[in-house]
Write a structure and sequence with these properties.
The complex is a heterodimer. Chain A is about 35% helix and about 20% strand. Chain A is an alpha+beta fold. In chain A, the strands form 3 sheets. In chain A, strands 3-2-1-5-8 form a 5-stranded mixed sheet, with no helix packed on it. A 5-stranded mixed sheet of chain A has the order 4-10-9-6-7. In chain A, strands 11-12 form a two-stranded antiparallel sheet. The longest helix of chain A is centred in the N-terminal third of the chain and has 32 residues, at about 20-55. Chain B is mostly helical. Chain B has a domain at about 545-605. Chain B contains 17 helices and 2 strands. In chain B, strand 1 and strand 2 (about 590) form a beta hairpin. In chain B, helix 2 (about 40-70) packs parallel to helix 4. Chain B is globular. The relative contact order of chain B is 0.11. The chains are: A alpha+beta, B mainly alpha. Chains A and B meet through helix 2, helix 3, strand 7 and strand 9 of A and helix 3, helix 8, helix 9, helix 10 and helix 11 of B. The structure holds copper (II) ion (CU) (2 copies). One copper (II) ion binds near residues 302, 305, 351 and 352 of chain B.
C-alpha cells in the first residue's frame, strides 16, 4: 500500500505533455477544474452552512420566507449560461485545431484490427504493435485510421498527445498531432473491441528526424531482403496473427499455428483436410469457408498481399514438425 | 425512534381512528394470487420493489466482482471462463470480465435505475399525490410489471446463464463443454450493443435484445399510465400549480419514456434482423453503417439518462421542502426546468460520438445544446439552496440523503461540463473520467435520491418507523464509500486509463486499489440499509399519519393506506404550505388543524 502511494505522481490530473494539443486541452481542463472547485465549495459550503445555521429549534416552525424571485432566477440562469458558452467556444476552437490535419504532414496509416495495431509508413515500411509507432519530433503527422471490413470498432488513443479517434470498419478516419518531445508514450485502444481489448496497447516512439529516417530505411523492404521464413515471422507479428494464434501449442481465440502445416485438420463439419499451401491461403483469405473444429468463425479477413502470404506460408512451414519437404 | 412508546393511531387531525384499524392494503387480502393478480397501485409498487431490489443485488454482486478483478493489474479472480475461450488462462479471465461488466451495466441500467424511482415510488406515491384511488389504467400497470418480470428473467438468464453454468462446473470439477450451448449463453457487448461488435460476436445478442425489448414495454406502459393519471385524475381544485414537484418530475420522465423507448425497441429489432437474416443495416461488411447504430442507440440512451435522473430531482425537491419546513423556492422554475431538460435531452445524443468521425459541425451543435442543459440543472440546485436558506431544517435520514444528493450531483454535473467540452472530451472520452462522471450522476445521485425517497415514504408504505441511528449510519457509509470508489476514477481517467479494461498498466494500480476498497465500504453501507429496513418491518414502531409534516395529500392517508387510499376526502392545498400541520409529541407526528369549509376553500386558492 505504502509503496503504491509512493509511486509516480498518481494524484496529478493530466498525464505528461507530449504534443502541441496540450496547449488546448490542459489550460481548459484546469480552468474547468478550478471553476468546479470554486462552485463546488460555494454550493457545498452554502448547504452545510444553512444546515447548521438554520437547524430547527422547534418542530412547529414553518418560516415564511419569500419563495419566489424572478430576478434571482434570471441571474442564476444567465451567469452559468455565459460561463458555459465561454467554455464552449474555447473547446470548439481546440477541437477544430485538433481534428484538421496540417498541410505537408507525414502520413502514417494505422490499421486497427482485433487486437492489433499495424503502422504503415510513407516508404512502405511497417511496424508491429510490439515495436510501436515511430515518428519524428516536431513534425506534423497525419494519421489515417482504418479497420478491416470484417472487424469491429477500435479507438486510437494517446493520452500524452490528448488525442483519440475511432477506427471504424468501412470508413477512413483521420487525426493528426505534432509531438514536442522525444520519448515513448503509450497508445491504448479506447473503444471496447472484445476479449483482448485491454491488451491492445502499443507505444509511440518519438525520435529525432535522423533516427526516424534511419528507422524507415531499416524497416523497409524486409520482404525482399530477408529469407522468406524470417520475413514471414515479421509479417505474422505485424498483422497481429499472434494475438489469436499462439505458436507454442496453446489454443487462444484461434488454434495454435505451430505444427499445422502438413498436418490433417478436422473442421467443424467433421471432415478432414490437408493443411497445404492452398489450405493456408484459404484460411487467410476466406476464413469463414473452413472452420476448424472447436473454434468459432471469428477470424478477421486481414489485408495480406501475395508476397506477405508467401512469407507467412514459409514461416508456418518452418514451425511445423510435420513439414519435411524443405532442405536447408 | 424505536424506544418511543407506540404512538396512538389517529387520523390526520389527531382524532383516534374509528373502524377496523388493522386493515390496510398490505393485509386486505391474503395469498400469493391476491398479489400476483392485484390491480392496486400500492401492491404493484411493492411487487416492483421486490423485483428491482433483487436486480440491484445481482448487479451489485457483479460490480463487486469487477472491482475485485481490478484490485491489481494482471488477473485476480480465478478463471471460470467465458464465451469463446478455449484455454483456462488469462484470456478466460478477460472474457469472463467482459461478460461481467456487460451484465453489471445492462442489469443496473435496464432493471434497476430506470424502473427504480418511477415504478416503485412513482407507483406508490403518484396516485396519492393526486388524491386518487389508483392510476388511470390499473390493468396496464399490472401488465407493465409482468413485462418487467418476464423480460427481466429472460434478460438475466441470457446475460448470466453461461457464467452460472461455468461456475457450477468449476466448483464441481465438470467440463463446461459437456453442457454444450448452455455454457455459452451470455453477452459480451457491453450494455450499449455497439455494432459491428454485436453483429459479429458469437454471444447471445438476439435473446438479450428481446429481453430488453420486453423490458422497454414495461417502461413505456408505466410512463403512459402516469401521464394519463396526471391529466385525468387530479382532485377537483388541484390545478397544475398545486401538483407536488414529484409529479412534475415524473411527468417529464414519462414523456421521455413514451417517446424515446420505442426508438430503442426499433433499433434492437433492426439489430436482430441484421443478425438473424443478414440484412445489412449497421454492419459495414453487409453494406451497413455502424455509426448509424450509434445515432439510433443514443437517441434513446441519452434521454434515458434523464429517465434516470429526473425522478431523482423529483424526490429531492420534496425532501428539501419538507425538511426545511419552508415553502419550496421557485416552484415554477423547478417544474419548468424538468420539462426543459426532458426536451433538450432529445437533442444532445451526438455528444457520445465526438471521436467517431462525425462532422465537426455536428459535434459543435451537440456540444452547444449539451452545455445549455447546465442551465436548468443549475436552476434546480440554486432553488434548493434558496429553499434551505432561512428554513427550519431537520436532518432526518431522508434529508441527509437529499444533502448527499446535492453534493454528489454537483460533482456529477460539473464534471459533465468537462465531458461536453469538445477539445477536452477528445482526451477523456471512453476513459475512467466518463465512468466516474456517470456513476456520480446515475448512482451517486439517482441511487441516493431513491434511498432518500424510500426512507421518506417508508412509514407510509409499511406503517413502520425505522431506527434513525442505523439509518444515518448507513447513509454516512454509503456517502463515504461512494466518494472513495469513484472520485479517484476521475484522476485515473484524466491520466488516460481507458474504460472496459480487464487488465491495465501498473501506473494505475493505486487508483484501482483505492476504488476497490471504496466499493467494499459502499457495499457494507448498502447492507446496513437493507438490515435497517428488515429490522423496521419486524420491530419498527407504528408510524403516525404524517411523521414529517409535509402537506402533499399522501400524508392525509392512513399509514399504511387502505386499498382505497383515503378514508375521508383529502384536502387539496398548496403542497408546500406546511403551516396547518402541528407537531404532536404524543403521537410522534404532525396533525392537521381543523378548518372550516371556508378556510379549506381559501387554502385551495
Ligand atoms: Cu479495443
Ligand atoms: Cu448523453
Amino acid at each position: 500500500m505504502m509503496n503504491l502511494l509512493a509511486q509516480t505522481q498518481w494524484w496529478n490530473w493530466l498525464p505528461e505533455k507530449g504534443s502541441t494539443f496540450t496547449q488546448w486541452v490542459d489550460p481548459l481542463f484546469y480552468f474547468e477544474l478550478i471553476l468546479s472547485v470554486v462552485l463546488f465549495v460555494g454550493i457545498g459550503g452554502c448547504m452545510f452552512y444553512f444546515a447548521w445555521k438554520y437547524h430547527h429549534k422547534n418542530r412547529e416552525d414553518h418560516p415564511h420566507g419569500s419563495h419566489h424571485n424572478n430576478t434571482l432566477e434570471i441571474v442564476w440562469s444567465v451567469i452559468p449560461l455565459g460561463i458555459v458558452m465561454f467554455i464552449f467556444v474555447w473547446g470548439f476552437r481546440g477541437m477544430m485545431d485538433m481534428t484538421q490535419p496540417q498541410a505537408y504532414s507525414t502520413e502514417i496509416v494505422v490499421t486497427a484490427s482485433r487486437w492489433n495495431w499495424q503502422f504503415s509508413y510513407p516508404n512502405g515500411a511497417q511496424s508491429s504493435m510490439q515495436d510501436g509507432l515511430t515518428v519524428p519530433v516536431n513534425q506534423p503527422i497525419r494519421i489515417v485510421l482504418k479497420t478491416p471490413l470484417t472487424d469491429v470498432i477500435h479507438s486510437f488513443y494517446v493520452p500524452a498527445f490528448r488525442i483519440k479517434k475511432d477506427a471504424v470498419p468501412g470508413r477512413y478516419n483521420e487525426t493528426w498531432f505534432k509531438a514536442t518531445q522525444t520519448g515513448e508514450y503509450p497508445i491504448y485502444c479506447a473503444e471496447y473491441c472484445g476479449q483482448q481489448h485491454s491488451q491492445m496497447r502499443s507505444k509511440v516512439r518519438v525520435v529525432s528526424e535522423d533516427e526516424y529516417y534511419a528507422f524507415l530505411a531499416d524497416a523497409a523492404n524486409f520482404l525482399d531482403n530477408d529469407p522468406p521464413a524470417v520475413a514471414g515471422q515479421k509479417v505474422f507479428a505485424i498483422k497481429g496473427c499472434a494475438t489469436c494464434h499462439s505458436v507454442e501449442g496453446k489454443p487462444g481465440t484461434g488454434p495454435p499455428l505451430n505444427d499445422v502445416f502438413a498436418s490433417k485438420v478436422t473442421l467443424t463439419d467433421g471432415s478432414q483436410v490437408d493443411a497445404d499451401e492452398n489450405y493456408i491461403m484459404n484460411s487467410v483469405k476466406n476464413p469463414s469457408s473452413q472452420i476448424v473444429a472447436g473454434f468459432q468463425d471469428q477470424m478477421t479477413v486481414l489485408d495480406v498481399s501475395e508476397k506477405e502470404l508467401d512469407a507467412l506460408i514459409a514461416y508456418l512451414k518452418s514451425i511445423s514438425k510435420h513439414y519435411v519437404g524443405n532442405k536447408e | 425512534m424505536t424506544s418511543n412508546p407506540a404512538p396512538i393511531i389517529t387520523d390526520a387531525f389527531g382524532h383516534p381512528r374509528k373502524g377496523n384499524l388493522s386493515r390496510n392494503y398490505l393485509n386486505e387480502s391474503k395469498g400469493i394470487l391476491s398479489w400476483l393478480l392485484t390491480l392496486d397501485h400500492k401492491r404493484i409498487a411493492i411487487l416492483y420493489m421486490v423485483g428491482v431490489l433483487t436486480s440491484f443485488l445481482l448487479g451489485g454482486i457483479f460490480a463487486i466482482l469487477l472491482r475485485t478483478e481490478l484490485i491489481a493489474p494482471g488477473t485476480t479472480l480465478p478463471a471460470v471462463g467465458g464465451i469463446n475461450t478455449t484455454s483456462g488462462g488469462a484470456d478466460a479471465v478477460w472474457s469472463q470480465y467482459n461478460q461481467m461488466f456487460t451484465l453489471h451495466g445492462a442489469v443496473m441500467v435496464f432493471m434497476f435505475i430506470i424502473p427504480a424511482i418511477p415504478a416503485i415510488l412513482g407507483n406508490f406515491v403518484l396516485p396519492l399525490h393526486l388524491g386518487a384511488k389508483d392510476v388511470a389504467f390499473p390493468r396496464l400497470n399490472l401488465m407493465s410489471w409482468y413485462c418487467y418480470m418476464i423480460g427481466g428473467l429472460f434478460f438475466l438468464w441470457t446475460l448470466g446463464g453461461g457464467l452460472f453454468v461455468r461456475l457450477i462446473c468449476k466448483i464441481f470439477g465438470l467440463d463446461p463443454e459437456s453442457f454444450g450451448q448452455l455454457a455459452n449463453v451470455g453477452l459480451d457487448t457491453g450494455w450499449t450493443f455497439y455494432t459491428p461488435y454485436s453483429t459479429w460476436t458469437s454471444s447471445s445478442v438476439i435473446s438479450a435484445t428481446m429481453g430488453a425489448f420486453v423490458l422497454g414495454f414495461s417502461s413505456i406502459l408505466t410512463g403512459l399510465n402516469f401521464i394519463a393519471s396526471i391529466h385525468m385524475l387530479r382532485r377537483p381544485g388541484q390545478g397544475w400549480t398545486k401538483l407536488p414537484l414529484f409529479c412534475w418530475g415524473i411527468y417529464a420522465t414519462s414523456i421521455i419514456q413514451i417517446l424515446a423507448t420505442p426508438v430503442l425497441a426499433i433499433t434492437l429489432l433492426l439489430l436482430t434482423a441484421e443478425r438473424a437474416f443478414g440484412v445489412g443495416i449497421f454492419d459495414p461488411a453487409k453494406g451497413g453503417d455502424p455509426i448509424l447504430y450509434q445515432h439510433f442507440f443514443w437517441f434513446y440512451s441519452h434521454p434515458a439518462v434523464y429517465i434516470m435522473i429526473l425522478p431523482g430531482f423529483a424526490i429531492v425537491s420534496e425532501l428539501i421542502g419538507t425538511f426545511s419546513r419552508k415553502h419550496i423556492f421557485g416552484y415554477g422554475f423547478i417544474a419548468a426546468s424538468s420539462i426543459a431538460i426532458a426536451i433538450l435531452g432529445f437533442l444532445v445524443w451526438g455528444h457520445h460520438m465526438f471521436t467517431s468521425g462525425q462532422s465537426p459541425m455536428l459535434s459543435a451543435i451537440f456540444s452547444f445544446i449539451t452545455f445549455s442543459i447546465a442551465v436548468p440543472s443549475g436552476i434546480k440546485i440554486f432553488n434548493w439552496l434558496a429553499t434551505m436558506y432561512k428554513g427550519s431544517i431537520r436532518l432526518d435520514t431522508p434529508m441527509l440523503y437529499a444533502l448527499s444528493f446535492i453534493w454528489l450531483f454537483t460533482i456529477g454535473g460539473l464534471t459533465g461540463v468537462f465531458c461536453a467540452t469538445l477539445s477536452v472530451d477528445l482526451h477523456i472520452h471512453d476513459t475512467y473520467f466518463i465512468v466516474a462522471h456517470f456513476h456520480y450522476v446515475m448512482v451517486g445521485s439517482t441511487l441516493t435520491a431513491f434511498l432518500g425517497g424510500m426512507y421518506y415514504w417508508w412509514p407510509k408504505m409499511f406503517g413502520k418507523m425505522y431506527s434513525e441511528r442505523w439509518a444515518r449510519f448507513g447513509c454516512l457509509l454509503i456517502f463515504i464509500g461512494f466518494n472513495l470508489t469513484f472520485f479517484i476514477q476521475f484522476i485515473a481517467g484524466s491520466q488516460g486509463m481507458p474504460r472496459r479494461y480487464a487488465d491495465y498498466p501498473a501506473q494505475f494500480h493505486i487508483h484501482h486499489f483505492i476504488s476497490t476498497i471504496g466499493s467494499y465500504i459502499l457495499t457494507v453501507g448498502l447492507f446496513a440499509v437493507l438490515f435497517n429496513w428488515i429490522h423496521s418491518l419486524r420491530r419498527g414502531a407504528a408510524a403516525p399519519v404524517n411523521p414529517w409534516g409535509a402537506n402533499s395529500m399522501e400524508w392525509q392517508a392512513p399509514s399504511p393506506p387502505p386499498t382505497a387510499n383515503f378514508e375521508t376526502d383529502p384536502i387539496v392545498g398548496d403542497p408546500y404550505d406546511y403551516s396547518h400541520w402541528h407537531w404532536n409529541e404524543e403521537i410522534g407526528g404532525y396533525v392537521l388543524e381543523e378548518m372550516t369549509n371556508d378556510e379549506i376553500r381559501n387554502s385551495k386558492q
